[in-house]
Design brief:
Layout (H helix, E strand, L loop, with lengths): L14 H5 L2 E3 L5 E6 L8 H14 L5 E2 L5 E7 L3 H10 L15 E2 L13 H12 L10 E4 L13 E11 L9 H5 L5 E4 L2 E4 L9 H5 L5 E12 L11 E7 L1 H18 L6 H8 L2 H4 L6 E3 L1
Parallel strand pairs: 5-6, 6-7
Antiparallel strand pairs: 1-2, 2-4, 3-4, 7-10, 8-9, 10-11, 11-12
Length: 296
Amino acid sequence: MDSRNMDTTSALDGAAARGRGIIPQRQPGLYSLRLRVPLGLLTSAQLSELAGIAERHGEGRVQVTTRQGIEIPGVPEESVSCALRELAEAGISPGSCGPRVRNVLCCPGLDGCSHALVNSRELAAALDRAFLDVALPVKMKVAVAACPNACTTPQINDIGFVGAVHPELDPEACVGCGLCEAACREAAIRMVDDNPALGAQRCLACAECIAACPTGGWTAGARGFVAYVGGKGGRHPRFGVPLPSLFDVDGALELVRAALDLLCEHGRPKERLASVLDRVGIDALAEGATSGVSGL
């Protein structure tokens, strides 16, 4: 009998191993090692160590995941322990799998992006520290974007945060040039009798009107994060619902903590946050996170 077709179930094939980032491949006896990459950042030294480990214990290649993590595929069962030990020595931890908070997606933000409105990495790092390895009944995906361009797709995560700056008009400084109307891609600003009128329902708080104004007529008001809750991808994707507040870092942490409490209290097996909110109502979540926020 061809041994490749036999049942080769291993102790590494269980949920506990998956929780440590050890993922069985479809090929018997081979595993992918999922690694935790906070903020999607690795040092050049870590990259060098990672390359060596993949060469020695895997297939000589790595894969970047959709959540800004890294996997080393093709690791034989007998090499898993040694590979994990070498990764730990390089300061690289196993990734999060299974029912827990997954790797927090994060854009570069103020560190390099000209569109960034807020410090996305500050929030993502705080979320990572607060909720790493918290046991849950189901997985939780969180993403942070520094502006409404939303390159980390926060709207299709369980909870997503989008940087925002609420524009405020100083009528005395406005000269009625109309450059803000031309700059607004949402058609949220219309010139009425040579004065800009802002339609709050259309405004994404992207601050492009502020950047376009040559006289300082538009200035930055409240600054923070818009939170989207109940989004998800997969075979039945849906957009999250934006909450009517602007969150600072502390408020964002409280919101995620309230969502985790809601999942633990009301969640059914494998039921994502979106479905829980469908049953208990979004107010149950909003009421659990009331500090550190300001109205938009």
